């Protein structure tokens, strides 16, 4: 009897697995069509300088509007896109669209584009970057690519060569989600990095948890020594922004300022964010 029941459980499990695999295959099939059907768009989230409240950059964040699934978040489709290799074509689309959009922004406002480690390691990556810059006419210094520490884990020679090549062309390199991966401070000295983005998990409890504040202070101290700029991600409260500002963190990004918004709202954000900022922070910033 136990055996029979065991078999039943196995069948149940197999059925679940079948369903999971089918769901996954369907997602893959839809994702493949999404690009040619033009279902992806980029939304943009401002990065604000703590010194004066000005918008210094926008991060481009992918959104998938599927006619059958509705709105699908990057957390759901990026892992599938990476596993199937589709991330290369999707990432190329994001790069081109972001550069085209940013070329219309005023002043020196930069655009930050997320690059998957898989996309970063392809042989066509540097060509894709050059093509996106050329087609848009965007100055290389206004493009910032966001990579995670996982790109440092293998193919070190290619990674290093790619990073130096990007740097020599004037493109900026940001380390995303800093502190969550296999963080090693030695990476910071070894690889050319212009900016660190402190992961929002550290920012979340800075007002309550001493431990996280100590981590943030340590990151800020080492970044300042190495001449690397720091952006704090996921800033949601005035208190968090004040703590970061008092410690000379360069920029903040988060729902306190604005979530990611469609490109059409960018002119409004460029005008509104500094006004809101000065209402939140009437006192002058502490000098270095
Ligand atoms: P990320 O690069 O770390 O982007 C920041 C994420 O945090 C975004 O989620 C953003 O909407 C969210 N966020 C910003 N401020 C706050 C806040 O104050 N509170 C909270 N709770 N969340 C905040 P999103 O847009 O869902 O993107 C998730 C991840 O998907 C990104 O994390 C990035 O790793 C990836 N991704 C997005 N677009 C692209 C892309 O074009 N290419 C690649 N390869 N990955 C992308
Ligand atoms: Mg990012
Ligand atoms: Mg991030
Ligand atoms: Mg993140």
TrEMBL record:
Residues 10-37 form a coiled coil. Keywords: Coiled coil. Residues 24-274 form the EAL domain. This is GGDEF-domain containing protein. It comes from Methylobacterium durans.
